[in-house]
């Protein structure tokens, strides 16, 4: 029954369309083809002007709607030293491209309206115009030079590697489906060597236990870092592409299997300071950012406010599989004292999991800590086949 009705409807609609076509044709004959064409051109030109106004209005409304997501909005301020230079490059680029976008859209639709087909008007044949060529080459060239040089400058500054003689903390993040394995160097300040052939259930990073630098390395579940200290993150992956992303610190780098990458940054705001900023009140005692004063659990007004529960986070920014969203880790930026406190509570992975097992090369000798530390660097076994070095 439904099928029959649908078929009848379709037939009727086709008849109507055909009839409208016939009526238009007849009207055209009565009024003259040119007249009809002229009116149609005018109508379409006006439609395009209306479209332009609505389209630009929608652009501005959506820009306003998403203004709190923009980098210049208070709670989005970067928490690392290099962050503001990246942010200003983003904002300058957005300003110039936004300006060009609005001007070119207005011109596009205005010209379509102004030069619509009209009786007696002939298209102008203009094969070449040096003045125009110069204008539309030089202006974009100047703007692009400004943007590209500025961007390159910021990039070189941000991506500069550490000087081996300066003081920095090196940590390591290894992405796998679907989590981050974090590693800290322990008291010697050096990450031990790894070999992918040593990866096993108890040795998730393939650490070479004959390398004394590995014996004090520990695997925390959160990233703890002291404020104001330079940090170098060694970034690797165990299976597919991941991406080490610390959005609040403007740190983002691919984690590639077999090819360590790195990122250097200096946290400048502690977690506590950032929470206070999000929860700040203005002179009238009202919250500056009301959305951060909402309870974490909307159904429980007694639950902590969003700014109180805020934490920096590490996320994966490369769609790496179905558990991609679960690759979150908390990042805590603390004072030097709190950091030392936390460090002293960490147990080396070797101590907690490897020591005394079959994986332990010192099982028989029960290598004392002091002996391990006094081993000279040269005594370290050569493993040239390792895919990843501590360089
Ligand atoms: Cu991932």
What does this structure look like?
The structure is a single chain. Helix content is 39%, strand content 13%. With 391 residues, the protein is α+β, with helices and mostly antiparallel strands. It has two domains: 39-117 and 145-160, no CATH class; 169-375, Cupredoxins -  blue copper proteins (Immunoglobulin-like). β1 (169-176) and β2 form a beta hairpin. Copper (II) ion binds at residues 175, 242, 316, 318, 320, 324, 327.
Please write out the topology.
Layout: H1 2-31, H2 33-65, H3 83-114, H4 130-158, E1 169-176, E2 179-183, E3 223-226, E4 231-237, E5 242-246, E6 251-255, E7 261-265, H5 271-278, E8 312-316, E9 329-334, H6 336-345, H7 349-354, H8 369-374
Parallel strand pairs: 1-4, 3-9
Antiparallel strand pairs: 1-2, 4-7, 5-6, 5-8, 8-9
This protein binds copper (II) ion.
């Amino acid at each position: 029954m439904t099928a029959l009705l649908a078929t009848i409807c379709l037939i009727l609609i086709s008849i109507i369309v055909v009839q409208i076509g016939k009526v238009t044709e007849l009207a055209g004959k009565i009024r003259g083809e040119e007249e009809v064409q002229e009116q149609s051109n005018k109508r379409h030109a006006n439609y395009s002007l209306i479209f332009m106004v609505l389209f630009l209005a929608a652009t501005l409304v959506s820009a306003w709607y998403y203004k709190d997501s923009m980098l210049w909005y208070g709670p989005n301020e970067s928490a690392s030293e290099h962050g503001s230079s990246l942010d200003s490059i983003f904002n300058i680029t957005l300003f110039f491209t936004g300006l060009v976008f609005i001007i070119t859209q207005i011109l596009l639709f205005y010209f379509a309206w102004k030069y619509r087909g009209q009786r007696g008007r002939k298209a102008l044949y203009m094969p070449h115009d040096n003045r125009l060529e110069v204008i539309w080459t030089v202006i974009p060239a100047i703007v692009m030079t400004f943007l590209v040089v500025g961007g390159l400058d910021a990039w070189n500054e941000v991506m500069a590697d550490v000087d081996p003689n300066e003081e920095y903390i090196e940590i390591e993040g290894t992405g796998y489906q679907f989590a981050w394995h974090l590693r800290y160097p322990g008291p010697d300040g050096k990450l031990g060597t790894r070999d992918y052939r040593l990866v096993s259930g108890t040795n998730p990073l393939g650490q070479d236990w004959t390398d004394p630098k590995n014996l004090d390395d520990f695997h925390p579940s959160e990233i703890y870092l002291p404020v104001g200290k330079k940090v170098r993150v060694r970034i690797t992956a165990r299976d597919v592409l991941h991406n080490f992303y610390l959005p609040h610190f403007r740190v983002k780098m691919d984690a590639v299997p077999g090819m360590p990458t790195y990122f250097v940054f200096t946290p400048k705001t502690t977690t506590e300071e950032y929470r206070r900023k999000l929860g700040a009140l203005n002179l009238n005692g009202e919250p500056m950012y009301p959305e951060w004063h909402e309870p974490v659990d909307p159904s429980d007004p007694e639950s902590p406010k969003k700014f109180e529960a805020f934490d920096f986070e590490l996320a994966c920014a490369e769609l790496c599989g179905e558990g991609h969203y679960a690759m979150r880790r908390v990042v805590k930026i603390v004072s030097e004292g709190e950091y030392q406190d936390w460090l002293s509570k960490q147990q080396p992975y070797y101590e907690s999991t490897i020591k005394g097992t079959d994986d332990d090369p010192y099982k028989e000798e029960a290598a004392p800590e002091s002996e391990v530390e006094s081993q000279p660097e040269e005594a370290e076994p050569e493993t040239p086949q390792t895919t990843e070095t501590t360089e």
